[in-house]
Amino acid sequence: MGQIQLKQVTKSFGDVQVIPPLDLIIQDGEFTVFVGPSGCGKSTLLRLIAGLEDITTGHIEIDGQDATDVVPAKRGLAMVFQSYALYPHMSVRKNIAFPLRMAKLNQVEITKRVERAASVLNLTDYLDRRPGQLSGGQRQRVAIGRAIVRDPAAFLFDEPLSNLDAALRVGMRLEISELHKRLETTMVYVTHDQVEAMTMADKIVVLQAGVIEQVGTPLELYHTPRNTFVAGFIGSPKMNLMTGGEAAKHNAHTIGVRPEHIDVVESGGQWQGTVGVAEHLGSDTFFHIHNTGLAETLTVRAIGDVNLKHGDTIHLAPRVDEIHRFDADGLRIA
Ligand SMILES: Nc1ncnc2c1ncn2[C@@H]1O[C@H](COP(=O)(O)OP(=O)(O)O)[C@@H](O)[C@H]1O
Ligand SMILES: [Mg+2]
Q1: Per-residue pLDDT tens for 155-199?
Q2: How far away, in angstroms, is 109 Cα from ligand 2 center?
Q3: Model confidence pLDDT, tens digit, residues 97-134
Q4: Among 43, 91, 145, 287, which residue's Cβ finds the most Cβ atoms within 10 Å?
Q5: Which atom of ligand 1 is nearest to the CA of 190?
Q6: How far is the CA of 299 from the centre of ligand 2 (A)?
Q7: Number of Cβ within a 10 Å radius of residue 150
Q8: Whether 132 contacts 88, CB under 8 Å
Q9: How many CB atoms lie within 10 A of CB 249?
Q10: Which residues, 6+ apart, have CB-to-CB distance to 307 below 8 Å?
Q11: What residues flank ligand 1, with Cβ below 6 Å?
Q12: C-beta separation of 320 from 261 below 8 A
């Protein structure tokens, strides 16, 4: 089991409240991602759940039991950090076994659990190596192994991949998702990277300045962002947000159109502009367009290779049913 509930939780450091009253339920078995810009309180929230920080007011329940005053080691949660502090002089086997030796489990049980974790993580062949003889990805897996053997109610990850290079990050992202499918254990994962959030999460919690802006599945956030913050944060390249006359035509203060929902046409499109930078990726072309009279830069994603270059005039047709409308407070208009 691993349901985690935050009830009216707040956190202040001195006089500064970084988490205003916050309610959240993380369901058993769910992969929940906290995402938001740097400094928005993601790590703090995770550390409150882990018990590494005391909450200022409110309650935390784990599987329906009040855990607010329970020490971290007794919460049954396992935290995997970004800097995966392994013991360099110990073998992989000993590193993974370490929390079990601390908990004074018997040797037979320790061996059984370490070997099971190693098998799940494809580390069986590396058990007798030292961390220095492993790649970054393998070291990260050892750190996860150390968490798995404790058979936690939930795993807590704080930006575990941000030290890895881009290719490895994509690989580890898949591995952690795969691991979640296999273990079916609750995972709470913190990242500032919305692509990581979109690709891994069952449920995304978008935070800004300690406040939950929206909770939903990746596609709920993509299709129906509650406000302009979520609209601009989720999706890559970012949604184009426009105010002024074009928004007024749609009875809104602000309208938003994703780059992939604006078609490049030969002529006769509703909008036109001048191509600035054109990023040719082969699979897609991203155009950064100026002089549209709509926004300083409009970003448009065309499928495949579209042969327009810097300075060319581009004709655009936004898909009207994909236009998001927001009021003067930035809230979505249904
Ligand atoms: N120990 C601390 N003492 C004082 N302020 C802190 C402490 N830890 C975090 N903060 C502040 O709380 C806010 C949230 O920080 P953090 O949770 O680390 O953000 P994130 O993980 O989203 O980047 C920041 O403004 C940060 O400066
Ligand atoms: Mg952080």
Answers
A1: 999 998 887 788 878 888 898 999 899 889 999 999 999 999 999
A2: 35
A3: 998 998 899 999 999 999 999 998 889 999 999 999 99
A4: 287
A5: 21
A6: 29
A7: 19
A8: yes
A9: 10
A10: none
A11: 13, 18, 36, 38-44
A12: no
In one letter, which amino acid is 193?
D
* CATH class of residue range 4-229: alpha beta
Residues with CB under 5 A from ligand 2 (ion): 43
**Rounded alpha-carbon distances, angstroms, from residue 19 to 43, 45, 69, 291:** 11, 8, 18, 41
Q: What is the C-alpha separation between 194 and 207, in angstroms, rounded? A: 12
* 207 CA: nearest ligand 1 atom: 22
| Cβ contacts of 197 within 8 Å, gap of 6 or more | 33, 35, 191, 204, 218, 234
Asked whether the beta carbons of 240 and 288 are under 8 A apart, the reply is no
pLDDT in tens, 3-25: 999 999 999 999 999 999 999 99
Q: Are 5 and 66 in contact (CB under 8 A)?
A: no
**The pTM is what?**
0.92
Amino acid letter for position 280: H
Residues of the chain with CATH 3.40.50.300: 4-229
Range(s) of the chain covered by CATH 2.40.50.140: 239-326
Fold of 239-326: OB fold (Dihydrolipoamide Acetyltransferase, E2P) (2.40.50)
Residue 73: CA count within 13 A, CB half-sphere = 4
Tokens found for residue 76: 């049954």
Residue with tokens 């993380």: 26
Sheet (strand 324-326) strand order: 240-243, 254-257, 324-326
- Report the alpha-carbon distance of residue 211 to residue 137 in Å, rounded: 33
User: What is the structure's pLDDT at 83?
Assistant: 63
Reading the block at residue 33, the tokens are 């991602």
Separation CA 39–CA 44 (nearest Å): 9
